[in-house]
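Minutes, project check-in
Item: structure for the 140-residue chain
Input as provided by the requester:
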Amino acid sequence: MFYIIPGIIIFFASVLFARFQNEKALKSLTTEQSGELVQSLSKTRMASMMVLMAIIVSFLLASYFLKIDKMYAMIGYFVAILGYYTFSAFLALKKVKELHFPAEYIKYSLYATYLRLGGLIVFVVLLGFGFAQNLEQSNL
C-alpha cells in the first residue's frame, strides 16, 4: 500500500503538468492550425476508443472469467496501456509533423507526452513494488 499512494500522486502530478505543456503548445498554433489539428486527429478517435475498450474488456475477461491470477492480468493490462499510449502518441506526432506544425508546438507536445508517459511508468513500477511487497508479506 505504501508504494501505491506515491505512485498515484506522481501520476496525477504528471498529468497536470502535461496539461500545462499542452496549453503552451496550443497557444503556439494559429486558429487555422488548431482547427486542422482537431480535424486530423478526430478520424482516429473512434478507432482509439475501440482499442482502449478492447484492452479493458480483455483485462476483465482475463481476471474474472478466465480465472487468470489478477496480478498477471493487471501486469498485462498496464503493459497494454503503455503500448497503446506510446503507439497513439507516436501516431499523433507523425501526423503533426506531416501537417508541418511549428517546432514550438511539437516541442511542448513532446514534453507533455513524456510527462504523462513518465508518470504512468512510475505508477506502474510502484504498483509492481506494492504487489511484490504484498506477495512477500502473504508468504511469511
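Outcome recorded: Residues 103-139 form the longest helix (37 residues).
No further action items on this chain.
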